[in-house]
Amino acid sequence: MITRIDDCKIIYLNRIARPEGNLTPVERANGFPFDIARIYYLYDVPGGTDRGGHAHRVLEQVIISVMGSFDVIIDDGWQRKVHNLNRAHYGLYVPKLIWRELTNFSSGSVCLVLASLRYDENDYLRNYEEFLRYKENDRTIS
Ligand code: TYD
Q1: Which of 2, 62, 66, 113 has the fewest CB within 10 Å, making it most exposed?
Q2: Contact 41 CB / ligand 1 (< 6 Å)
Q3: Helix or strand (DSSP H, E) at 93
Q4: What is the mean pLDDT of residues 35-46?
Q5: How far, in Å, from the CA of 18 to the mean position of ligand 1?
Q6: pLDDT tens digit string along 23-37?
Q7: d(Cα 78, Cα 3) in Å, to the nearest integer?
């Protein structure tokens, strides 16, 4: 299936709000798009840093700002869109073969990523031209 910008969706997570603070559990549930194989988080990111210019051949992910804010630029080879993430109870679902960049980190922000695969460098497309070629190939095959 060819993935497009519109396949990237905001996913709302449960928020248990109490006067003493909020809690958001994430667990396998109806509506969550994949089984989580790995969690990683970015922190101590210097304000203004850009990260994550790459796409994945297979991996799907949900990107959450659990603290502070940052922008996620998504690009399907035809269109680009920017999502500002700034709350801990929702995340951006990014399917396979979407180029994504993380920018405009506020200082002290923490980016949590829920991923469908364990770390595998072979799953990365780190070169934008290579991504476009791969995407074109995917379009031809689909
Ligand atoms: P990378 O995915 O390139 O981060 P970003 O695109 O956000 O800058 O990862 C940076 C480094 O961390 C790279 O050497 C691979 C390593 N890494 C792991 O070892 N395990 C992981 O789960 C991730 C996400 C990265």
Answers
A1: 2
A2: no
A3: strand 90-94
A4: 96
A5: 35
A6: 999 988 777 899 999
A7: 11
